[in-house]
Amino acid sequence: MKINCNVIKDLIPQYVDGALSAESKELVTEHIGECESCKAYIKEVEMTYAELDGSADDFRETDSSEGIIVQGELAALKKIKRKINFKRTLAVLITAGFAVVAVFAGYLYINEHLSYIPYEKTGIVSTNNILSTPNNYQMLLAYSCEYEGENIEFMILCSSPASRNEKPKGVIEFADMNKEYGESVDENGEILTEKLSKIYYLPKEAINKLPFIYSPKYMLLGNTDEILNKGEIKTLVEQSTLIWER
Q1: Which of 97, 118, 89 has the alpha carbon at shortest distance from 204?
Q2: pTM to 2 decimal places
């Protein structure tokens, strides 16, 4: 198939740069095998690229009728090469950016996508006032408050894809109830120590009633200063499972 030389010359910079498709490359190769003018043009393009890469001597400007690139054509080729290099660099940067975002999103999903663990699947046991579990979990969420003159706590365990696929760690102690719960100061300035009296495990349908847990992902909202009223606490106590008491 005969192709106009002007069309081939438009393709030659990309041909030399290796940016043509297999079909276009075949057309250019076939044409230059029969056209001395375009073959000479390719040599000049190759020399120009070598000059731009700092690996060739300066060009002598000659008459274009002999198939040699003049200053205007040289400038055009420089512009084409800069554009090709810019597009390649941009493509690399975009690809790298997508890769970073994908890795970060994958990390967040694996480690932070929390799922509620039902109490019967936690394996929680209490021995000598120490709560432990043989099962992996990603996060423990808890809310403490006062109810009927006692300090109580509501809690849940959450898993993630990472914790569910992790090799079992053995028995994990997550609460030592022999330690002090907190401290307060009375009107005389004396420090009083407090201890929890009871711990309840919340059912899934109740966790969104706590002021600092967001359902369904169970992420902390940092609103732990909000206080539940007595009626709300009573409802949670009735719905929850008592897993430890002093």
Answers
A1: 118
A2: 0.53
